[in-house]
């Protein structure tokens, strides 16, 4: 396919904390966050590679982003593609996503058609169909548009108002429900609730020749001195100046910037609602169930039975919509549904894991309940039948967190890496716990 990829790696994952906190004081790139056993940047490049995209330019913002991404995908050799990076001297200079794209396009003398994409999302889209629509309309920019209903859009997403052919007339930034009602009158309330609204997904098909010429405009140069972001600055300016900017509906975008969004996207992917992800995961064993052979053959040290034998005898309940990586140990009585269990984990007797992400090497103790939550690498949810531990409703445990038996965490609590929580701690909903001192306040 004669479309190059320009991947934007500008975020430091601050909104996604503690998922993006690798160690105290050190944020990992959002592109390096893990999703269903792979780093996000690998997911997006593999998804686009499988639709024929072979050449990629990664635009970093900050040396940490560059180092982390290059360690994961190098120059594309592990994925069978070619990857180049923005120059180090430019990394800290750009003023936004559009400015970063223009700098790299000028430096590498990039021309023709490019897909500008975030490196920290997953997507289901038809790349060829979007490229065809872009060529047919003669657009300077074609925006990949995610269709969302009003209740999801209100206060969270910007909306694009278009002509019947998809040409964008106006952007409405994060309208309220009342503003949506006013802009999109519907015959009945039921019709309004189902109304498809076009929102910006952050995926842009661009005409690089036209974009580079526009980049020389005095207005654009002036904006770039302060901020030149695609969504906030350049695209509204292009529409206001009469340039052809079009919306093209795409299938689905996975938003991973918060714990609720992460969990929802993970569950959707496990149910097959992202066909692009399903193709890369391969054929499930049964009922949306993926288990690596190394885990099927693992024997737990209590029963001495393999996971395959326990499943055959009904000693564990696994599924639907579950992925288990390599060498994870699942004990009798475990109940796992709509969840991802990464490599080397331990799920102990009678533990319940529901709609949750369990990262590499984590341990879920006996009779523990983990629901709608994220458990970081090598975290320990210690638990006993006498003192069961509960973690539920969008709690996030950073890497190497330790919970003692009987701890109960709920409702949006965030734990930074290596924090230890003793029994008896009463941590309020929504708390962000960064250190032992924070824990001590609630004992």
Description:
The chain is an alpha/beta fold and 443 residues long. An eight-stranded parallel beta sheet has the order 16-18-21-24-27-30-33-35. A seven-stranded mixed beta sheet has the order 7-6-1-8-13-10-14. β2 and β3 (26-27) form a beta hairpin.
Q: Roughly what is the average pLDDT, rounded to an integer?
A: 90
Low-confidence spans: pLDDT under 50, at least 5 residues? none
Helical residue percent band: 25-40%
Shape: globular
CATH first level of the largest domain: which class?
Alpha Beta
CATH superfamily membership of the largest domain, which one?
Answer: Spore Coat Polysaccharide Biosynthesis Protein SpsA, Chain A
Quickly count the helices: 15
- Kindly identify the CATH topology of the largest domain: Spore Coat Polysaccharide Biosynthesis Protein SpsA, Chain A
Quick synopsis:
It is built from 15 helices and 35 strands. It has 443 residues and is an alpha/beta fold.
What is the fold's blueprint, element by element?
Elements: E1 4-9, E2 21-23, E3 26-27, E4 34-35, E5 38-39, H1 40-49, E6 55-60, H2 63-73, E7 82-85, H3 97-108, E8 113-118, E9 122-124, H4 127-137, E10 141-148, H5 150-153, E11 159-162, E12 168-172, H6 177-183, H7 189-193, E13 197-207, H8 208-214, H9 218-224, H10 230-240, E14 245-249, E15 252-254, H11 259-270, H12 275-281, E16 289-291, H13 293-296, H14 307-312, E17 317-318, E18 322-324, E19 329-330, E20 335-337, E21 339-341, E22 346-347, E23 352-354, E24 357-358, E25 363-364, E26 369-371, E27 374-375, E28 380-381, E29 390-392, E30 396-397, E31 402-403, E32 408-410, E33 414-415, E34 420-421, E35 432-433, H15 436-440
Parallel strand pairs: 1-6, 1-8, 6-7, 10-14, 16-18, 17-20, 18-21, 19-22, 20-23, 21-24, 22-25, 23-26, 24-27, 25-28, 26-29, 27-30, 28-31, 29-32, 30-33, 31-34, 33-35
Antiparallel strand pairs: 2-3, 4-5, 8-13, 9-15, 10-13, 11-12
